Amino acid sequence: MDRLVFLLATGLARGLVVALFALSLVIVWRAARLVNFAQAAVATVAVFAAFAVTGATGSFWAGLAAALLTGAAVNAAVERGLVRRVPQGSPLPGMIVAIGLVMVLQSALGIAFGPRHRPMAAPFDERPFVVGGVPLLSPYDLFVLTVALALVGLLAWLFNGTTLGLQLRASAAAPEVSRLLGVRVPRMVTLGWALSGAVAALAALLLVPTELGLNAHSADLLFVHAFTVAVLGGLDSPTGALIGGVLVGVLVSLVTGYLGAGVAPLAVLALLTLVLLVRPAGIFAAAQVRAA
Amino acid sequence: MTATRPAETEEIAVRDARCSDPRPARRLTPTQRILLRAVVLTLLAVAATFLLDPYRNYQLAVVAATFCATAGLTLLVGLTGQLSLGHAVLMAAGGYGYALAVNAASSAGLDGGGAAGAARVVLGLVGALVASGALGGLLGLAGARLRGPYLAGLTLAMVVALPALTTQVPALGGDQGLAVPFEGVPEVLSLLIVVEQWHAWVAIVVAALAVTPLAVLRSGRAGLRMRAVHGDETAARLSGVSPARVKVGAFVASSLAAGLGGAVLCLVTQSVGPGRYDLAFSLLLVVAAVVGGLGSLGGAAAGAALVVLLPWLVDTVTGAVGVPADLEQRLSGNLAVLVFGALLIVVTLAWPGGLARAAARRRHRPHRPRGRTDAPAAPPPPPASQPLER
Amino acid sequence: MSAALAVEGLTVGYAGAPVLDGLALAVAPGEVVALLGANGAGKTTLLRALSGLTAPRAGRVLLDGADLSDLSVEDRARRGLAQVPEGRSVVTELTVDENLHLGALWCHPGRAARRVAVARTYDLFEPLARRRSSLGHQLSGGERQMLALGRALLARPRVLLLDEPSLGLAPRVVSQLMGVLRATARETGLTVLLAEQNVTSALSIADRGVVLSLGAVVVDAPAAELADDPALRHAYLGF
To answer: For the CA atoms of B75, B78, B83, B86, what is the dihedral angle to 10 degrees?
Structure first.
């Protein structure tokens, strides 16, 4: 019972990180109708930037800012430099270019920094609080929870409560009509990519201290989990990404805790297969209605 | 409008067959011509093994095995538009199927060389076909219901889960994988060739057996159906083609070829394990298919050679130039991947059609690309995605 | 007095088969012009070229005498050239209210001003007021067209381009829409270019009718004259 509570609590913290990353995939999907397979690689580049800045300044917060900026900048550059030139009409070229980008970024990181895992210290204690004899969340877990929830709230406000969010949503849903209404759609798409890069960078930065350490492939598994989440919730649905993220986080935590870490990828694959076969468009996906 | 489609389709089949070989053939049917070409190419490849030293022959065998998988992948992606990031796992399925069947045959008394050895290898290949076909069928069923990114994501998750699967299922031998018996040179040939050359022969023959059916499939009605489904599923359905059946069929055909490739690789390296079939290798297969030119079997062969030989070439060069040991270690593997990633991007953005298209352009005067442009079932093609057909 | 909208030598399409062939047209400020012609005459292409969605091979478009050639679609919209494209031009994933706010974004700075402007639109199109929090795809065809028109008017355009607003709508809804359009044009001096298949209702509110055929203007006459001339109607409009 104690163990269950502990696993649920850590699963929640981890799940919110996965949800954040999935949200970043949803943002790109809504802006460009593209699953950005390179998102993990971009996020890893951003975490390396954070690592360097934290190493130089000694401040975790400076590193955090660097990660956000780098994630946004790299993704904006990717959109302007590559995605905009991808032929439209079929999803295939976009996916292939993204995969090429993964290979370029990860191998470049590998050449620059080597295969070694670099330990990254968490800014808070990672030992869990013990409440009534039951180990619960660590201060770092609480920090992750707070940051993730705050960011989700911020994104919800940005998209639903501001005129910028209104323009972002309109450009994603109906680019041509939006342009006719004076919305600078190309700029909005770039902005969507940048926003998504920053969110993905933050998710990876929150994750790495709890893992082995930092190397070129640190965020790969995060991407697989987040993709599962995005599919689970439907690539169009931010709410779905949130709920799915927590679900996958808890599942991974429970499976790892009770059956061993080796079984977790199989559990995720099984879940993904099941959802794809039962609800190919995702559990929370709205009916497919699109403006012409 | 629907009524006219079969006739138009027929006409394309004729034109298609004519275009695939510039020389007019009078009496041979397209299938016979493909078989003839396969025999000639196989004999040429076997003859070429006499020009190569043992290590080159080993590399040739690996290229032939990889070619099986890239040919399957290029057919799948180029003709039906389904992107699989998991063809490495299908190769692995073939490898494991081969190893399990061969080992079972060995313990059942089929050990030693000669006829027993040959029977064992054939049983192993059957095992590979069963394993990869079953997995491919399951994936095809999923793929028939899923669109672009979802199928890619599912196959990606599959690659990532492979090591976990091999660790969890005891029969698959964990991280180490499975070992298979060494297949030596048959006695009649033992004076003539060494084992590497013999393995290259086996690999070439199996590759021919794996790829020729794909070529036949592509040039026939099945190929047309695949293009029709890729072009416009609704229109294909209206002209009597079942998209689901076509997609599953394409996936199974593609998987069987990949499985044979995995079996060959297992035979040549005497083992199969999860380490070889990781995400990086799976992505290399995609690189080979794209850079060679999606849908082109010749391109798939060139792509397979590229992804096998370039990493080795890079290692050789960095070794010869004498870079510091630390840097050499970092460059090893990574530099080739960097080049491949860049190639993938450049080919997709600037040079769609890949090597196959470039070669065709040199051979013929420029002509309108075939495929979706002509497919009656298809809507007017978005200009840049249509070169993916060939 | 210079035209609110002027088109000079506009050519769109391939060299051998132009969709618009050196088209010239001028619309005076406050004028309502009906753009008529058979399917494929080039009406939609003309409107798309005016708003910048289709790039012309030659010619230019002037808004109040200023050349728009180098301006993007967005900038033309912000300069006061509004277009209601044919069919479902509502952003179906946004609510009615959000659609209207989107239209009000540029010329009603400030949240409060936008709210007032949107409220006035609800007065103009009462059925929309009841559906303000419905998503676009939940609306009927008539409601969508009202929303598209209301949204375009919220931008206080100098020139309004309408593409087949009556398509697929019930006659009662059409006359309601045309009524609002005529009233708005009279009150605000809005210049309107109205592409229509529905010749009768278009001519009923227009000052002038322009008939396109094969990408060029073949008839340019006062609306009343066009409506009363059976020979002209028969030759170019098929009834």
So the answer is: 30
In a domain, B241, yes or no: yes
Residues 162-201 of A with CB under 8 A from C: 163, 166-167, 169-170, 173-174, 176-185
- The DSSP secondary structure of C7-32, one letter per residue, reads EEEEEEE-SSSEEEEEEEEEE-TT-E
Size of interface A-B (CB pairs under 8 A): 162
Pair of tokens at residue C120: 């006035």
pLDDT digits (tens, 9 = 90+) for A214-257: 888 888 888 888 888 887 887 788 888 888 899 899 999 999 88
Asked, for residue B53, whether it belongs to a domain, the answer is yes
Give the DSSP letter of residue C67. E
From the list A170, A180, A291, the residue facing C77 with the nearest CB is: A180
In a domain, B148, yes or no: yes
Question: Rounded to 5 degrees, what angle do the CA atoms B152, B63, B143 make?
Answer: 20
Least confident of A10-24, B22-36, C200-214: B22-36
Q: Do residues A244 and A285 make contact, with C-beta atoms less than 8 angstroms apart?
A: no
Residues of chain C contacting A169 with CB distance shorter than 8 Å: 93-94, 98
Does B96 reside within a domain? Answer: yes
Say if C142 falls within a structural domain.
no
DSSP B50: G
As a whole number of angstroms, the distance between CA B142 and CA B125 comes to: 25
Contact flag A101-B160 (C-beta cutoff 8 Å): no
Structural domain count, chain B = 1
pLDDT of C25 higher than 50 = yes
Structural domain of B225: 2-276
- Tokens for B68? 């099986």
Q: Provide the pairing of β-strand C66-67 with C81-84.
A: unpaired
Question: What number is the ipTM of this complex?
Answer: 0.90
Considering only residues 128 to 187 of chain C, which have any Cβ-Cβ distance to chain A shorter than 8 Å? 136-137, 151, 155
Give me the domain span that covers residue C209.
5-87+156-237
Cβ of B77 within 8 Å of Cβ of A92? The answer is yes
Q: Which residue has the tokens 């049917």?
A: B29
The CATH number of whichever domain residue C48 belongs to comes to: 3.40.50.300
Domain count, chain C: 1
Structure tokens at A264: 């977790």
Set of chain C residues whose Cβ sits within 8 Å of the Cβ of A167: 102, 105
What residue spans define the domains of chain A?
A: 21-218
Is the full-model pTM beyond 0.80?
yes
Q: How many C-alpha atoms does C86 have within 13 Å on its Cβ side? A: 14
Contact A227 B279 (CB under 8 A): no
